[in-house]
User: Fold this.
Amino acid sequence: MLESELGIATFRDLLYYFPYKHIDRTRLYYIHELTADMPFVQIMGEILSFEEEGQGRKRRLLAHFTDGRGLVDLVWFQSGSFKWIKKNYLIGRKYIVFGRPGVFNGRINIPHPDMDDAESLQLGTMGMQPYYNTTDKMKKAGLNSRAMERLTSTLIAKIFPAGGVGNFPETLPASLIRQLVLVPLGQSLHDLHYPESAEALRRATYRQKFEELFFIQLNLLRFARLRQQQVRGYVFSTVGFYFNTFYTNYLPFPLTGAQKRVVREMWSDMKSGRQMNRLLQGDVGSGKTLVALLLMLIALGNGYQACLMAPTEILAEQHLATCREFLKDMPVRVELLTGNVKGKKKRTPILEGTRTGEVQILIGTHAVLEDTVEFRRLGLVVIDEQHRFGVAQRARLWKKSTPASNSVPGGFPAEIPPHVLVMTATPIPRTLAMTLYGDLDVSIIDELPPGRKPIETRHFWTEKPEALYRGIRREVLKGRQVYVVYPLIKESEKSDMQDLENGFAQLCEVFPDLRISKVHGQMKPADKDAEMARFVRGETQILVATTVIEVGVNVPNASVMVIQNAERFGLAQLHQLRGRVGRGAEQSSCILVTKYELAKETNQRIDSMCETCDGFEIAEADLKVRGPGDLEGTQQSGVAFDLHIANLARDGQLVQLARDTANQILDEDPTQSLPENALMWARLRELNKNDIDWSNIS
Ligand code: ADP
Ligand code: MG
Assistant:
């Protein structure tokens, strides 16, 4: 059951199954000492009598409890358990009671206490008592925290006979342990289960957290360095004709300072002789597309092709339209390749042009990864909205070059991979980015184009739609446009589809005088495009849609984003959707519509959205609510090392220390040969055993 429920298969797994909390059993209080602000207390005494109080949901069971000097009530609220409690806890018997004091009617009580028979509990020897998580199924079979405690105490006694922790093999070099004043590994593993004091526990926790984060960083940085040494890249020595012409004659607005800086950072990568592998992070609307276009023009100016990959058809089409518009007065051939580009007549010329190099910029979806797509000389790959592409797919693109045709006169031979630029607006906190994309260099656009006003975000209830309708009409009368988005999580969910159709019908009824468009993923691509185009041209005032519009859609005249059933979206998604408005100079707003009764966590999510428009603040909030395990992209990221106790949200500073230290080690021991580091490198190899196979990637 240990294995099936908790994944504990070996003694090592058990050793690393740490308690989620400890209770200080070293001190017994008298009842008259108790105050309501004490976190946890332990008292010893006996039950005088039981009493049931209150009606219905307020019904509770009291046990009047005394230690001979004072009186306190123990309280239980789940009426289903009353019988069991009265049967198992005996009046007049000595118990050790453990819990968190509270106040009721001006008197101190202890709700839902832990009770132990005082005879069988050896208080003096217990010290800090560990509490282990177990599943309901395990508890039913008697495998509760106490049972786990018996297992770990036996194991710890075996590993550390007579309490000696000195002989346990150390993974970190001695110099590092001294430098950071860490407790030895053996000590820390022992103390994480059975610490002598709260301070010992703190130090053990610190050491273990550092260890977990350090090995992740060591691994990432090791690969980043390997790649820097090994993977040569095409040299883009000049910005070239296309860039210069566009920049001087056709740039529609001045670049922001941040846009200029990131373009410079990336060009300096691309002329370095090494392959560029860069993540471009910038909030929604920060102007990443233009940056990508400028870099693609640099590639073209050096005689190479560029490829821009988007996660959805709509987004790819939008990129095509944007690029063609920007480049309309320039001699550049831009083409689109998606699953919808079918048939010999449409597809063949594009494939052919890509092979001969006449197609200079190819924009597309996953379709560009297919084997039939061959480039003459692919110099730069841009991946938009990276979180939907896994590491493995990234790797496939790096290999996308046709050996024979890829060697350019004067250039490098064929095995050189194209430069890679990954763009994401998914706000990721810095510490998480360091871990997920720790092998990429990072550029950040931290500035929005001038004149943008923060989007006003408000929370409305489904039950009261009138205010919402008034608001929509007001905006439309001002000449603005409105999005109304429904969740359609899976394209096949009938009930969701129903919501969208009902919503559409209702809006048509409320606004008989307005023109309303509707798009969703189940429409024929041509119809979808036609509807989108009508909205973009301003022919319709309201667009009812699913999340197909989530990423990238750009209609500056749209000023209101209404999100129906907002409780069903994650924070990152809500932020993306909100980013569809606020693209012009006028005040925009986002309205989150939910039902009235919400779970606490959902309310927190909606509140964060209303409080801030800053994607990074939202990301931090998201990470705190959900924990990193849930974040999109974490699973596929290659962070396969198990984090037992380190937490990427809370331990941000430690992530930085771990990264700095890992860099220091790699500087000191670049060939991984110093004897004092041997165990550390061995541990790293062992951790890597089950990880993704990096040798396929670079
Ligand atoms: P995102 O970073 O979300 O992909 P986009 O590239 O779609 O953002 O840009 C959002 C909008 O801002 C577009 O309409 C684009 O033309 C505009 N834009 C980009 N750069 C600038 C700039 N420097 N000044 C003014 N507007 C800009
Ligand atoms: Mg974009």
User: Anything to note?
Assistant: The chain has four domains: 10-19+140-230+651-698, 26-126, 234-445, 456-612.
